Records
---
Amino acid sequence: MTAQLQLFEARDFNAPWNVRISRRARRLSVRVYPGGRVEVVVPPGASPTAIQRFVGNHRDWIDERVADLSAGRLNEVRPEVIDLAAIGRRFVVKYRPTQAARISVSVAGEGLLSVSGPLDDHRQVAAALRSWLVSLAQVELRLALTKVAQAAGFQFSRMQIRQQRTRWGSCSATGTISLNLCLLFQTAPVLHYLLIHELCHTRHMNHSRRFWALVESLEPDYRRLDRELLRGWQVVPGWMFA
């Protein structure tokens, strides 16, 4: 269970700042999402004074991230290169306007992606690229998840790809693991940690000591990787949210 509280009226900000009280939180953290929305995640019982002090100590970093992830960045909707660090693949994108009714995206060679069709609407171009990425993720992330599960002795019922703005992954009580499409832009170690994290939820549907002990037994460096994942939105290109 979580609660949403307003932190600032944000007279000098274009996007709202919110505090989210989370029972899962072990420490105060701040997240800046594409579009410039700022969320401070705090554990239950954190005092307003502690929250304000935390925000003040990180204000410069927050301001830089808000500027970097502001609405202007969302206009970057025709990438020339797509780097998918999680799976070690990089594509140069070539655009070819045609009279076709729809935009098509296809692999035209090793490391080359072809986008053709009516290319005037940049948002439609971005949507076509995301649709292609979903198909790629269905194959690549399923392969990665299956490999990690088999190596660590886990089982899951199925996998689905989603594009959420706040969560990197989840595991349902029935064993369905949902993975965020934007994981493709994270580093391979971060992806591996997230897969371990969600697979551990097939045994512990909580964030108890037993859960974290299991995570640590499989990924001793999980604390650093978890912090890196919290900053993961910084490397997701703006066209993913156009």
---
Amino acid sequence: MTKKTRTILFTIGLVFFILAAPSLILYSQGYRIDFAARKIVQTGAFYFKISPKNVDIYLDDELSKKTSSITGSTMIGDLAPKIYGVEIKKDGYRSWQKNLDIKEKEVTEAKDIVLFPQNINFTVAEQKPKIIISATSSDGEKIVEYNDHEISVKFLEDRNDPVQRKGGDKIFLARFSENLGTVFWLNNYYLIFNAGNKIKIAEIDDRNEINIIDVAEFENPKIFWDKSEKRLYVSSQGKLYLSDRLLP
């Protein structure tokens, strides 16, 4: 290779480096080109914490990541700002779906997600439950309000979490044509109740649509949530039934 050829190649490499360096620096700082909007934007991220552990997270119908088998959490970064269709799946469990927004330089959290078993078995109970009914959640931050057909949750104090509620805020969860029975706090972020003959679980995260699932169906049920055992008692047609554990 002649000296002239080496000089030409060095010059080309130098020019390429000078042109590429700003792009590499911007990329390393989280900047991306939004071709649809024809502008440069900074990326954001999702943080998930889910029970059970080791679940699949899909963004816009594409598998993105699994949660940790140790902590049940994960961070998904370098995401362009927009609304993503999020679906969380695990074999044997009901999926969780919601549209969540990514904003520039921000982390969007969804850290109190529970996936419930696809099939929940009930057996005849051998003893009656010792039940305490409370309208207030265990963390003392929320109170459930309901009548024959509607359920709402009122926040008693400010919350620094994904929902970002202030004390006094109220969210309307759902209205049902069937009469509601007693509503229990399943944990601090989910409610369990019966609407007519169907037993349901509802989340309280009202971003996009609220996930409500049907757990079981009994004739004229009366339900009782055993918080310590994390199992549901159902009284129906003179018999008392007991569910599998609903929470880890």
